[in-house]
Amino acid sequence: MPATPAWPPDSLPRLFIDATLEEDGEIVIDAAQANYLVRVLRLKAGAQIKLFDDRTGEWLAELAHIGKRDAVLRVEGKLRDREDVPDLWLCFAPIKKGRIDWLVEKACELGVARLLPVRTQRTIVDKLKPARLKSHLIEAAEQCERTALPELAEMVSLDALLADWPEKRTLFYAAERGGGSFGEALVAHDGPAAILIGPEGGFTEREDEAIRALPQAVPVSLGPRILRADTAAAAAISLWMAGRGDWN
Predict the structure, then answer these.
(1) Which residues have CB under 8 Å from 60's CB, separation 6+?
(2) pTM above 0.85, yes or no
(3) In the chain, which residues fall in CATH 2.40.240.20?
(4) Where are the alpha helices (DSSP H) in 74-181?
(5) Is the pLDDT reported for residue 1 higher than 50?
(6) pLDDT tens digits along 41-74
(7) Would you state the CATH architecture of domain 14-81?
(8) Annotation: CATH topology of 88-243
(9) What are the residues whose beta carbons fall under 8 Å from the beta carbon of 239, sequence distance 6 or more?
(10) Could you give the residue range(s) of every CATH 3.40.1280.10 domain in the chain?
(11) Which percentage of the chain shows pLDDT scores above 90?
């Protein structure tokens, strides 16, 4: 028997589909996604799910057919358009596996538009696995009901980041020492923004001087305690979202 349709579909499972969705379209999902729906969630043919594609928004779909190694989803109608994403980037020095996974997940959940890994002199991790990080971003977006995925940029050196910095984008530099009030900085600096979080061990003196020499850089404090890199990222994003983003 088909599953009883749920409406409004607030509690339905969500899947990211890397293809443009449209009404009455049919999507063949791969073995991994089919296994999640059928064997993990135990959905039957006729069950409803929500799909998003990072292009057009969120859609209601039906599990139309279950195969041995795949499944077919039939798109029924649009639920909402793609969200308006606050124009905030997170620039961060990669940290250890596990903690970097947590960092990108929380950045996605908190609403960041773009993630830029930055290589510094004290960066411990000099190579990333973009596919793994992308999977964590997708999982976070599915769970927190985002309809847009953050862009994951390629890693660049700190020098290259500063040399190519956009003229009209404020760079809030989370400084371990000598930073001003983040709240006051948010009042003074509107518009496109980014947050720069250093590596475990912090920036070197030369790097600190180079960042502060950037005209768009605004050194800010995250409080009286020294935070771990992933904690600092989550705290800074939260402060920006509350002051300038879509939390106010």
Answers:
(1) 9, 12, 48, 49, 50, 51, 75, 76, 77, 78, 79
(2) yes
(3) 14-81
(4) 99-110, 130-144, 158-163
(5) no
(6) 999 999 999 999 999 999 999 999 998 888 999 9
(7) Beta Barrel (2.40)
(8) Alpha/beta knot (3.40.1280)
(9) 182, 183, 186, 222
(10) 88-243
(11) 87
